[in-house]
Amino acid sequence: EHWEQFSSGTATWIAGDVNDAQVAFYPNVSTNYVDSLDNSADTNFALVSDGRSGDAMLISPFLDFTHHRSAVLDLDAFAIMYTSSEYTDYGGAKVKVRADMGEWVEVLDLSYNHNNGWEHEMVDLSFVAGLDRVQVAFGYKEGASTTYYGNGMAIDNVNIHAVPGLTTLTATGTAESVELAWSSGRSVSLDSDWVPLTHEEKMLLIEESASANEDIISDELSLVNRRGVVSLDNRPASTRRQGGDTFTDAVEITTPYYGSGTTVGYTHDYGPFDDDTDLVCGFAPSSSVGLASDVVYKLTLTDTAHVVIDLDGSLYDTALGVYDSTDTALVLANDDYNGLQSYLECNLPSGTYYIVVDGFSTSSGAYTIDVHEVIRPPDLL
């Protein structure tokens, strides 16, 4: 999954242990609260790398709670930043939540000294149940003054989930009573690790899914043929809200945008994505990436923006390329970020960009595309 983080200074969120926290939090020798972090079930946890060098914000990926009636945040938290003074800014450590890119809502204020180490927190987030694009933000703010006890924030064992419902409910009845038995499900923790596929794994996965993809492509072609839109002069365009054929007839979009379509029946106009001369982000994978039929979207940014382009959910081996307004300079490229799906994330200056949805080698098929901006929340703390 794709976690975002923002910093106002050199402080960032890192993974570390108690030894790292001893350096990052500047604890007082005689009252060293950081020592108590040893009671964590894990040796590693997330922490702010320097409690006296700026603000640090960690934001979760988008979570979908549209099909849930509950939402809960579980975590272990630690902070040191508070003294008895009420008149000096000693910083802050807070947790906020939002849905559908709306306003941030504070759900936890951790801005005090956790003398006994980890505090387990459980928060009811039912106000986001039934909503999409749910995010949780963990924010650390450096104070105007440092404290005697030290300064820092850490989190561990974060679990954002729906309340498990009942499963395998059974009843055993007699004339006098009914005995009920059941078990409950469990939610799955977020997986923030990404390990790219090796070439051998990629080829095996393509081979294993070949028949399924052939069925999908066959169905798409059958549908397109029935609608009489296979010819070069009569292809589906913006009416289906999928990409256009070339830069000239690219479908114009604004953020946030979510759409779907197919590359089946289109021609190969752009690629391969193997030239890194003008790359701003991503990497130019190889001469085998971007050789398939492709479609194009046009995105115009009026200001500098942190943009995410995600093809997760597509049904074939995708590839992504982004060109600038010159139509020739490849500025972003990706292949196989999430399994066989492509993903790009970059801070882009204002201007016009052409997003090319392509495939590995000659792969084509149905795709979904999500284009949105990641906006730093100014009121997080």
TrEMBL record:
<protein>
    <recommendedName>
        <fullName>Peptidase C-terminal archaeal/bacterial domain-containing protein</fullName>
    </recommendedName>
</protein>
